[in-house]
Here is the input.
Amino acid sequence: MKKPELVVTPGNLEDIGILAEAGADAFIIGEQAFGLRLAGEFKREQLRKAVQLIHNYDKKAYVAVNGIFHNEKLDAMKDYVSFVESIDADAIIFGDPAVLMTVREVAPNMKLHWSTETTGTNWYTANYWGRKGSKRAVLAKELNLDQVTEIKENAEVEIEVQVHGMTAMFQSKRLLIGNYFRYQGRAMEIERKGKDENLYLYDHERDNRYPIFEDENGTHIMSPNDVCMIDELDELVDSGIDALKIDFIFKSASYKKEVTALYRKAIDTYLNDENEYFKQAGEWHAKIENIQPKNRKLDTGFFFKETVY
Amino acid sequence: MKIAVRYGADAVFIGGQEFGLRSNADNFSLEEMREGVQFAERYKARIYVTTNIIAHNENMEGLKEYLKGIEAAGVHGIIVADPLIIETCKQAAPKLEIHLSTQQSLSNWKAVQFWKEEGLERVVLARETSHEEIKEMKENVDIEIETFIHGAMCIAYSGRCVLSNHMTARDSNRGGCCQSCRWDYDLMKQRDSEADKNVFPTQSAPFAMSPKDLNLLHSIPKMCDIGIDSLKIEGRMKSIHYVATVVSVYRQVIDAYCEDPDNFTIKEEWVRELAKCANRDTASAFYEGVPSFEEQMYGKDNGIRKTNYVFAGMVIDFDMETNTATIQQRNLFKVGDKIEFFGPEIGGFSQRVAAIWDENEQQIDKANHPLQIVKIKVDRPVYPYNMMRRENH
Here is the structure.
């Protein structure tokens, strides 16, 4: 059986060594000028060091260039793509076709992972981006398990799904928190309210808390619960899925380390001895539950949920 | 659709029963599309069908046949977001033009170039694009560009919001959007050791992200100058009165500017006319810069606009000899009401309701049944499909 890659999102250089030791196979890094909703901010020099460090551990480094770009950013993006190639990153994650066009121009040997967060929903379109040069498709989180495995069955590209952590629900170009502060008369000018402000929207009817923050890309609203599939990995692994991702945005260093180690153990155990996996899976889930941040429940996302329209 | 064409639209985009973001059984069947195309052709207008879902595996079924059906109905093009539908259309229904939907959040000229190389005839831009950006796109890429000029809009990048999926298990990118962005929330700050805290006092207006509707009336000349190929009005679930009013105002503005750009000014009457059908406050959004809090709606009144006018009825016939109009009632009106007629043949005029007769020629003092057929005397000639609105009591 194929061993899926365990992809994680480090917050800083220090995380990389710790998570590599804990069993991560690949790292998503980048900076907010080009990448969306990253767990850490790796400016160019740090990005260079990060890629070296990741390669020292014999792991893969994927750089997020998945922003929605406006004209004014195109030149900077082109320069950035050249830089990312020059530091020998293993792949660029993109959503905007402008990045694909730019990679063809300035870094034709660079691998591409197609990821738009919300529109990777069927196998045909995953393969379409494959024909355009993408090696991997990162699926939308709003799919159920059957849809995911059906995509994998029909995919001509590698398939990555998120199995743990917070997911993005919303991106606006407007600065919605700043606008609200100004409406309330509390601010003369808008200052972006970043991740460190720990703000969330409270939904009374559902008793849900949606983290919200602003950055260069606008306003982002995140899911109220963390997906946790550690005890439901069997069908995903059986389907031959290529990569399982953990998103560590808003998580502490110790949390990242422990969750990475548990998933490592879960994947290896399943591949080695299914019965042993099923015996222990509940315990691993409970361990994660114990270290969940305040007000962040675990759930299984859309994997077992029916959506209507 | 017919009203939009009669009031001056060059093209109309409609939803079919499947594959669109506004799918439901009340939408156009293939038979109705065929009829719509034939009607539109009399006015040299074009019909586009929205097939702009972000498809899941199971939506592939029946897609080919559906696109072939649309093509056979004589429809001119489809508006698409998912490459699955783009590619399927190229193979199965090659006569259809393919327009990229705003759901692809198209925001830069290089991405526009990509879609041109993919063979698309037209792209509808993200609503987040500005005048300068669109100008650069036109300069850099030879492709038709379409942008929104009026109507309701998403507060998120269209296609990049799944609030509805999370909050109500309804898929926003397949037409299920429950408009969670129009709800109120509390903005809270998470604190480690103490209870979380509201950022603003709970009695003040809650956090909201409801956008005002788009209105680019004043920007039309600039849009024509840079050669935007198609200006789009969003009119879903709107009354025929709304469609007639908005379409006829923009028709007049575009024609007046193109005819004599040097002496063009925005007439006050156009602004007033548009306000007569507004159901929300409006703003210019991203075309003129990044929108501030003033382009959102907060608090109790929430920007819901009560206009001073009500859609009272539509003309279905006119007797020249007796100056009597036959009206299909749409909202209550009564003797003594101040009313206005408008339509492409007549411009507009106002008068009072002097007397009303019902279908049995009996005089009545009010028309209070929905779709009731009544007659009234009119000061000037009117034509079928002219609209009648009344000033509020």
